[in-house]
Amino acid sequence: DIVMTQSPDSLAVSLGERATINCKSSQSVLYSSNNKNYLTWYQQKPGQPPKLLIYWASTRESGVPDRFSGSGSGTDFTLTISSLQAEDVAVYYCQQYYSTPLVTFGGGTKVEIK
Amino acid sequence: EVHLVESGGGLVQPGGSLRLSCAASGFTFSTYEMNWVRQAPGKGLEWVSDINNSGNTIYYADSVKGRFTISRDNAKNSLYLQMNSLRAEDTAVYYCARIRWYGSGRASGMDVWGQGTTVTVSS
What is the average pLDDT value for chain B, to the nearest integer? Predict the structure, then answer.
């Protein structure tokens, strides 16, 4: 199984400041035949189901604000919130789709307001 | 509007059974691969099971293999999860989720989720 490791477990950021979340996979999730990284990011607010934010490591889902961006390739990935808003308080999960359908999630990163 | 609504959760004793349902609306259910994902109290997300659009290709997490059965009825726009031999560690919110391929030739994410149904296994 591909193991996904997120860091930090939690972070507190001031409103308007940048938040950075890291995700590392135990093996590459880059699919060589189409050069896409099968890495997806989700946001889960308290009491709600997860919401898909970014797929293919860096492509924003329709309707997701552009303050959310994803980067990275191979085994190391980052989710960045460029200017934290109050509504961004949530737990963020990465997920690998390389070994689909046997997909795995990271442990989650809780983002709070400082 | 696209919707997934789970039902069937509840309190069950260890060793018991439950059948979860997920009703889909607002999209052509029969063309989508579907998943069950669960979340234990205060914990992260765990993929449980996958079924392709026609229902003839199925996968399970090792943690539920041999105990859980996923199925679907495309005529009823419904997804199911039959859970047998339930254990305390199966206690979780169970979500159904739609799989998107985004034209890449491979599944790439879960783009629609239900609100979840809670399963509690306790004596």
Answer: 97
